[in-house]
Amino acid sequence: MVNGNLRNPIQVGVCGWGDHDLYPAGTPSREKLAVYAGHFPVVEVDSSYHAIQPPERMARWAQETPADFRFVVKAYREMTGHGRKAGAPARSMKEIFSDFERSLTPMAEIGKLALVLFQFPPWYDCQKKHVQYIRRCREAYPDWTVAVEFRHQSWFRPEYREQTLRFLEKEQLVHVICDEPQAGEGCVPIVSTATHPEQALIRFHGRNHSGWTASGRSNEEWRQVRYAYRYSREELVEWVSRIQDLKEQSRQVTLLFNNNSQGDAVDSARLMMELLGVTMEGLAPRQMDMF
C-alpha cells in the first residue's frame, strides 16, 4: 500500500513536532500537531521508537491533520536491535511486531502512513543474519512501505555497496539516504540512490563531527549534542541536484530534518524548500494573529 502525498512530489518536514519554534506562546501540546500541519505536509513520529503508541492516539493524529498530510513512523526500539527500555514490558518479538501493527493500522487505514522507518543502530553491521532479519521485517508488513536506515558503514563499503542496494530494491525496501558526519564506522556516506519506485527518503542529521559519538558523555548529553547543527546555504545547495535526480528515480522524495537539538531543523527545512523552488500543498489553514 502506497500512501504518498503526490500533491507534493517533493515533500519536506522535520522529525517530531513538539519542540520546534513554530507555536504561539502557550500553545498546548495537544494542539501543536494541528499547528505544525500548517507549515509542513509530513512529519516523522519519533515517540513510536520509545514506546509502541496506542492505536487511538495514532488515529487521533491522523484525524486532526489535513487530507494530504503524511506520517513517517519510526519502528519501536526493540524491533531494530536497540534493546528494551528500562521499565518496558517483556514481550516476545512476535508480540512486539503484532502490537506495532495494531498501533499503526488506524493511521494506515486512513491513508496517512507514508513510511515505516527501521533505523538500525551504529553497531548493526553487514552480515548474513542481519540481512535475514531485515527480510523478515519486510515480510511482517507486506502492505506498508518500509524504509531502512543503516548506520554502520560496512553496508556501503565498495565490496558490499551494490549488493546492499540490490537487496533493498529486490525486497521493495526504501533506502534511507543520510546526510551525517563522516566519523568512523558508526555512520554511512551519502549514497544518493533510490531503491523503491514510489518513495525516496532523505534524513538530514547535521554534520556535527565532534558531537557524533558518545565518548565521555551521558546518553542525555549525547542526544543534545549529536544533532546540534545549523546547515549553511552552501551545504544545502549541494543537495539540489541530488534531489532532482532522485525525483527521476521515485515518484515522491521525502526530506526530513533531524538537526533539532538547538532548534535548527525548521529553518533548514524552509531554506531547502527555497533552494528547490517548491511550495508545499494541502497544508492546514494557519490562524491569523490579530496583533
In short:
The protein is 34% helix and 15% strand.
Calculate the terminal CA-CA distance, rounded to whole Å.
Answer: 45 Å
- Oligomerization state of this entry? single chain
Q: List the secondary-structure elements in sequence, H or E.
A: EHEHHEHEHEHEEHHEH
What is the 3D form?
globular
The secondary-structure class comes to alpha/beta
Task: Give the radius of gyration.
Answer: 18 Å
Order of strands in the sheet with most strands: 1-2-3-4-5-6-7-8
Task: Give the beta-strand count.
Answer: 8
Tell me roughly what share of residues is in helical segments.
25-40%
What percentage of amino acids are in beta strands? Answer: 15-25%
Calculate the mean pLDDT score and round it.
92
Low-confidence stretches: none
Number of helices: 9
Largest sheet features: 8 strands, parallel, barrel
Overview of this structure, please?
The chain is of the alpha/beta class and 291 residues long. Helix content is 34%, strand content 15%. The protein has helices spanning 29-36, 47-50, 55-63, 93-110, 128-140, 161-170, 219-226, 233-249, 265-276, and strands spanning 10-15, 42-45, 70-74, 113-119, 146-149, 174-179, 199-204, 252-257. 38% of the residues are buried. The mean pLDDT is 92.
Topology:
Elements: E1 10-15, H1 29-36, E2 42-45, H2 47-50, H3 55-63, E3 70-74, H4 93-110, E4 113-119, H5 128-140, E5 146-149, H6 161-170, E6 174-179, E7 199-204, H7 219-226, H8 233-249, E8 252-257, H9 265-276
Parallel strand pairs: 1-2, 1-8, 2-3, 3-4, 4-5, 5-6, 6-7, 7-8
